[in-house]
Amino acid sequence: MQTFDLEARGLRDLNSTLQAQKDATNQTAWEIVNARGSHAIAVGLDAPIEVTVKGSTGYYCGGMNKQATIHIDGSAGPGVAENMMSGTVIVEGDASQYAGATGHGGLLVIKGNASSRCGISMKGLDIVVHGNIGHMSAFMAQSGNLVVCGDAGDALGDSLYEARLFVRGAVKSLGADCEEKEMRPEHLEILRDLLERAGCDAKPEEFRRYGSARKLYNFDVDNAAAY
Amino acid sequence: MCGIVGLFLKDKSLEPELGRLLTDMLVTMTDRGPDSAGIAIYGAENGSQTKLTVQSDDADADFATLADDLGRAIDAPVTLRRKDTHAVLDLPADQASQARQALRELRPGVRVMSLGETMEIYKEVGLPKDVAARFDVARMQGSHGIGHTRMATESAVTTMGAHPFSTGSDQCLVHNGSLSNHNSWRRKLAREGVHVETMNDTEVGAAYLTWKMQTGSTLGEALESSLDDLDGFFTFVVGTKDGFGVVRDPIACKPAVMAETDQYVAFGSEYRALVNLPGIDAARVWEPEPATVYFWNH
């Protein structure tokens, strides 16, 4: 286990050290202490290493992650795991707005609640939130899965493309062109796998599925009010 | 961007530390807004006296004999405590409006920052660490305080464009965001006889709240109605003589983190601002919900 004191050594040193780890590195486990809400912790990693951040983080922790497993032992500020490509980011506490924004792949697990715009414009990432999510979540989400074990706020899935949304609790309102869809066996399988990987004991049968009604894909003057 | 910090103490034993804690929080937020900084601090009451906090760009000349001149004009004892470009005038509360009138005539260049039994507002152009040092904020004591560091978007970088804005006696407002309908509200308020001094959007927000409260709303009701009447982005933090409130617009783009322990309620634009507070590791930390008014009272 390598321990890195962020306060003593600084952010640039941290990220360049972690980014320098390659596939064959034997320094596979890292612990970052004195995070103190700093921004851009452990961004742009590209190696199968395990990084644990002790304490809460500021903006963009784990952004652009590839391969690495990043564990935040606290809450995360805005834009956690934004544009993640692969790997795993786990937040023990809550996540602020636009968690997992634009993510292409990998798994983001939030054990507390996520606030507004969770999964905005996600492009293949999987997100599992153990608690609730805020308004405008999955706005323009293109692909991937968003699983919410609690409730969803206003305008869920507004202008949605092909991402799948699974919500166990109440949905305050659906956004334009988002509708409830039939839960088929293949969806239950996807859910079972994601819940298991996210350490969540909810049952797939307890969820409802939401997706795009596909009415806003092309301009239609009759839909002008919804654009 | 802009950065906001606020600290509302429940535990009186922390009161001597208020200025030091707030200064540390505000300096941490410097990179959210390096243009200007300000602080509203709620100190001790002084019997039937009220505090008129004023500012001058020519403080040596304006403040030299101000206490005597103003005392003669209102026929009451006035004392003056100078802090850099600001001064706090202590005078009888029932003479406050005469004093403001007399001040306009005696010293046209002096601007009123705040009026109140306990609140003092200090604000200037510059980095938070420099502004805090000029006014020696770290040594100030009190029950609660609000600080702001500004990245100007809607009006010029001037002392009067800095936050906090006073919204009435012992009331202040700081703002992160930008109001898009402030010009129409400036015209509406002018028709109601409410004067707004600068082209700043936040001052219109402050004047709006003052007007609402003058026409019968409580601060909580005024904040609720601001959600309908003010358009744009805002996280507001407000202070009153014995209270502290937070409200965010329904879109809630502007960040906000709160922490509460048995000793205090704290606000920061980011968690970074809170990390040096005592007992923060065991505090309840959460993000205030959009379009929800939060309020604490002593």
UniProtKB/TrEMBL annotation, chain A:
SUPFAM superfamilies: Alpha subunit of glutamate synthase, C-terminal domain (SSF69336)
Signal peptide interval: none
Cited Gene3D superfamilies: Glutamate synthase, alpha subunit, C-terminal domain (2.160.20.60)
GO terms, molecular function: oxidoreductase activity
Classification via InterPro entries: Glu_synth_asu_C_sf, Glu_synth_lsu_3
Name of this chain's protein: N-methylglutamate synthase subunit B
Automatic annotation (TrEMBL), chain B:
Keywords, sorted A to Z: Glutamine amidotransferase, Transferase
Domain Glutamine amidotransferase type-2: residue ranges: 2-298
Single GO molecular function: transferase activity
Alphabetical list of PROSITE patterns matching this protein: GATASE_TYPE_2 (PS51278)
Annotated TM spans: none
Superkingdom as given in the UniProt entry: Bacteria
Pfam family, one: GATase_6
InterPro entries xref list: GATase_2_dom, Ntn_hydrolases_N
UniProt key word RNA-binding: no
UniProt name for this protein: N-methylglutamate synthase subunit A
Annotated organism of origin: Sedimentitalea nanhaiensis
